[in-house]
């Protein structure tokens, strides 16, 4: 008798939302929301940074919320790797989705930049460590999740899942002519 946690019944890719409700994105990517423990081959972690806020207006509570988001990402990464090991997955894949605007920087947007930059740097560093465990970790920097962009993200998830040597990459699916850090 199959149990709900039997790998045959779990999807190859599961989505973990951090910072907001990810139901709409889950439907667009044709994924199902599970905890990282539900993954059989790949975990897709969608990080939604805090709302834009002027630096001078940020409070101690705002900084604690940003710290909590970053901590949640770390725990989701740890949970995914642990589950891959427990299930005996030969090759695991983790994809972290971040808004490109948060990572590239926007005026009056210190907290999203703080979270985006920290998560991006964390992923680059952890990808090196996880490679020895046959787990790839890549980051997708997205825009507004248009239909075309969601198709591109879904394709990337498939590529990451099927090509474990591809790790530590930052790939932009966001539209826009001005990729690059803003200048003050």
Explain this structure:
With 184 residues, the protein is an alpha/beta fold. It contains five helices and six strands. It is globular and about 50 Å long. It is 42% helix and 18% strand. Helix 2 runs parallel beside helix 4 (110-131). Helix 5 (147-162) links the parallel strand 5 (135-142) and strand 6 (170-172). It has one domain: 3-Layer(aba) Sandwich (Rossmann fold).
Largest sheet: 6 strands, parallel
Structural class: alpha/beta
> What integer is the average pLDDT?
81
What is the chain-wise order of helices and strands? EHEEHEHHEHE
- Beta content: 15-25%
Number of strands: 6
How many DSSP helices?
A: 5
Task: Calculate Rg over CA atoms.
Answer: 16 Å
CATH architecture: 3-Layer(aba) Sandwich
The CATH superfamily turns out to be NAD(P)-binding Rossmann-like Domain
Low-confidence spans: pLDDT under 50, at least 5 residues?
1-10
Text of the CATH class: Alpha Beta
The geometry reads as globular
Major sheet strand order: 2-1-3-4-5-6
CATH fold node name = Rossmann fold
């Amino acid at each position: 008798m199959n149990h709900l946690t039997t790998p045959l019944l779990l999807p190859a890719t599961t989505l973990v939302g951090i910072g907001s409700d990810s139901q709409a994105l889950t439907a667009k990517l044709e994924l199902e929301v599970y905890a990282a423990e539900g993954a059989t081959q790949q975990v897709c972690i969608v990080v939604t940074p805090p709302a834009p806020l002027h630096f001078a207006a940020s409070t101690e509570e705002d900084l604690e919320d940003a710290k909590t988001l970053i901590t949640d990402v770390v725990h989701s990464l740890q949970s995914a790797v642990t589950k891959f090991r427990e299930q005996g997955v030969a090759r695991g894949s983790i994809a972290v989705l971040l808004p490109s605007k948060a990572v590239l920087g926007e005026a009056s947007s210190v907290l999203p930049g703080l979270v985006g930059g920290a998560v991006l740097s964390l992923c680059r560093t952890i990808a090196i460590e996880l490679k020895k465990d046959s787990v790839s970790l890549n980051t997708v920097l997205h825009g507004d999740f248009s239909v075309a962009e969601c198709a591109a993200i879904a394709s990337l998830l498939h590529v990451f899942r099927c090509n474990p040597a591809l790790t530590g990459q930052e790939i932009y699916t966001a539209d826009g002519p001005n990729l690059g850090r803003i200048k003050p």
